Amino acid sequence: MPRTLEDDKLLTAKQAAALMVMTTNGLSQQRFNGTGPQFVRFGAHTIRYWQSDIQTWLDSRLRTCTLEDHK
Known about the structure:
With 71 residues, the chain is of the alpha+beta class. Helices cover 38% and strands 17% of the residues.
């Protein structure tokens, strides 16, 4: 089922960065590198993030040990 604005929220890059406790420049760098959450591009300068995609990305970054990153 496609998501809608009724059950999810589109956030600006500034709102998304604040939710992730990072700078907008850091989030932009993650977009460039392909290491951040999925995003929606509406135009050359209009980027939005589904709030649920940010949560999914954050959940995927959970670790219990620093060694997990080196396996």
